[in-house]
Amino acid sequence: MLRNYLKIAYRNLLKNKVFSLINILGLAIGMAACLLIVRFVRLELSYDQFHTNYERIYRLISEDTLQHSSLGTVYPTIGPALQNKLPGIEKTARVFKQAGVVRFPGDPSRQLPPAAYQEKGYFYADAALLDIFSFPAVAGLSGAAALQEPGSVVMTESAARRYFGDQDPLGQTLSLHDMFGGSYTVTAVLKDVPQNSHLSFDMLFTMQTLEDKFFANWQMATWNAFATYVLLHPQTRVAAMAQKLPALYHQLTAEGANEHLLLHLQALKDIYLHSHLDFDPTQTGSLSLIYLLVLLAVFIVAIAWVNYINLTTARSVDRAREVGVRKVLGSSRQQLIAQFLSESLLLNLAAILLAFTLYQIAQPLLQTLTGKVVDNMAPAPSAGVWLFWGGLLTLLLLGALLAGAYPAFVLSGFRPAAVLKGRLSASGKGALLRRCLVIFQFAASVLLISGVVTVFQQLHFMQNQPLGFDQAQMLIVDAPAVTDATYQGKQEVFLQQMLSHSAIEKASIAGAVPGTGYNYTTEARQVSADPLEAKPLNVTYADERFFPTYDIELMVGENFRKLPEHNQNHIIINEIAARNLGFARPQEAVGEKVSIGFSEEPQQIVGVVRNYHQSSLHEAYQPIVYQYAKSDGRFTLKINLQQAEVRMPEVMAFVEDNYRALFPTSPFGYFFLDAFFDAKYSEDRRFGKTFGIFTAMAILIACLGLFGLTSYTVVQRTKEIGIRKVLGASVRNIFALLSRGFITLVLIASMLALPVAYLLMQKWLENYAFRVEITWWMLLIPVLLVSLIALLTISFQTIKAALANPVESLRYE
How buried is 222 (Cβ within 10 angstroms: 0-12 exposed, 13-18 middle, 19+ buried)? Predict the structure, then answer.
């Protein structure tokens, strides 16, 4: 019986090649898009699940309810202290992110040349980190033993190749040049960290070195900058432990029993997608993006299934006689339902085979859109090949059932007597359903295009919004990492050499240039204020040339003086810092003194600068304090705009030659500030492209269905068109007649979709501190586009019918 069903289904598909092709193409494109989205979503959800004990790993989160801030870090003493006081904790490990220069002096005996690189994201880590997490070693010591001894460093395979080529790195010595420095011996080589790890690094330096040499001397115990992980015993009750943390935290912190300080446990599986922290030293993703892509996948597949239902029910009259004859010959309704579901299954099977082919072809596109190399993702323990094939089979069965069920029940319900007497016409209920489904397609298209317009408007706004400082042709040169007693003098010599070049207009030194963060974050208050009223702010080191170089407006007060001794205990703040410190107007802040961090000596405000975007437009203005410093920071060189294009190679050679002559042991690193800021929006651009491409797929599928529906409508009204032409109707009249119904559906769909689109886009824009306003034309564009697309889709068939010879139309059938 099944074989007979499939044979008849196959013949029916061949008999109606155009409709079959439209259905298969629509379903295939929808399924392929769905598979791509599901693949990306599965990768995003797989973060950190490759660790053997990931369900027992948690991170400590510190919260200040008074300042309404949460950090992904705690004080360095907290982790070890909790392990001693809470028996439910099996192990703890701290990581401290740093950047600096790593040098290998070379090994002539093994023909290994010297190497030095500016490393931007390594960690100091406790030895237990390699027991808590599953970062397997491929050479050397494994687990905690690799970082147990002071002066130990482990590196990934990629880092080992960078410094040592194909030679064995074990036992080699590296010198580290950052705020701590020191020499380290390579004890192990790890596999490269998978891309779906929220902790990303090339090197791990032992925390034991910092603990032995610097914690006491540098008062690092007061630095809330250490990401701390705990591995719980299997029997530990997380909720019960979480209740004990606030009281213990108050005992262990320098602030004592301040109730506004809280400590929380965050599950490892929640770090990547569920972290909304003010500071997080690890990479995080966007849960809202996941939801949006899942919604997009549902829309795309639903539109494809709607096409199938529309085209099948529209052709119900054509198949009425077939149903009547089958019923007269004894076929039951259940058998007819099985027959039509078999057709749906066969068509969906053909579609899913084509979809799988398209999915394979589009794999490189997925990597380009997401910026993630799928091959570098580690599989979660529970994720196997069967998940993909199971999902594919589910998509096939759901498509066959959901898309085929309604047409099957409608077609099998025809009465044979009425059919064979020719009394059957298109069902009013069926026509109403088709209109509703077409409205759904148009509404989804309006909704998706509204999203695309809003996304690209926001992206254009961010890329073109004035930042409050000059970023054009700003060359940022990394600070020398290897220094000696002559460093400060050489720094000034380098700046003077740069200013001697006719193409370099300005030069300065700053600890943190715009876009790169701050030197450190602390709290400040007016001297007369209660210590509990201290507000968080960010500290940046700058010299007297910083503000003129960047053309940052000094609102009131004065700049730093050229003489360093004049700037002792003088600070400059921005507008929002003045407001947070309790000054109603910037003028009130000048001359006042504030206490910053743990310094007992008050600092006097000598100037207030206008707010500018230290980071991207994703974030609100941040309170900043500028302290005078000439010996710590990057060089900023302002290149003359008129000479930049023709003389840039010459300028770069000049800068590099002078840098290497003065700082021969430090690698030369640089970037251009405008390109650096532009890169901050790369994720937004990728999201815009992804959303735009999948929206185009959805619209293409809707157009395929609309084309098929229009073709069928034209065929059904062939005789009517011929009579109207004989009676004098023009091509324009015929086109308007056939198009009017579809345009009406577009307008109804637009009225339903636009309020929803407005609310969703407003919600999405809340993720940005600086954002565009949704205007009337942003809502009008989707309606006009969908109307235009609909007209173009139906115009081919309608104009062809309108131009046809009416004699041929009247001879139809």
Answer: middle
Q: Are 83 and 225 in contact (CB under 8 A)?
A: no
Contact 758, 703 (CB under 8 A): no
Alpha helices in 46-170 (DSSP H): 78-85, 129-132, 157-164
Geometric angle at alpha carbon 460, from 681 and 619, rounded to 5°: 50
State the Cα–Cα distance between residues 352 and 34, nearest whole angstrom: 11
Among 279-293, 491-505, 598-612, the range scoring the smallest mean pLDDT is 279-293
3-class state of residue 591 by DSSP? coil
CA angle at residue 214 from 143 to 568, to 5 degrees? 145
| 8-state DSSP, 667 | -
Q: Which of 53, 96, 54, 90 is nearest to 74 (CA)?
A: 96
What share of the chain in percent tops pLDDT 90? 20
Least confident of 237-251, 318-332, 348-362: 318-332
pLDDT at 388: 62
Q: Note the pLDDT tens digit of each residue in 136-186.
A: 999 999 999 999 988 999 999 999 999 998 899 999 999 998 878 889 999
- 506-523: b (≥16 Cβ within 10 Å) or e: bbbbbbbbbbbbbbebbb
Six token digits for residue 769: 């501190």
The pLDDT tens digits for 191-226 are: 999 888 889 999 999 998 878 776 665 555 667 788
Length of the chain: 813
Place of tokens 């941040």: 622
Backbone angles phi, psi at 20, to 5 degrees: -65, -45
Instruction: Specify the pTM.
Output: 0.80
Report which of 725, 711, 697 is spatially closest to residue 806, judged by C-alpha positions.
725
**Maximum pairwise Cα distance, the chain:** 107
Stretch (H or E) spanning 628? strand 624-628
CA distance 286 to 303: 26
Handedness of CA 592, 626, 62, 131 (dihedral sign): negative
Distances (CA, A) of 800 to 19, 22, 704, 719, 763: 18, 19, 17, 14, 45
| Token digits of residue 281 | 């030293």
Say whether 509 sits in a helix, a strand or coil. Answer: strand
C-alpha to C-alpha distances, 352 to 31, 360, 505, nearest whole angstrom: 7, 12, 62
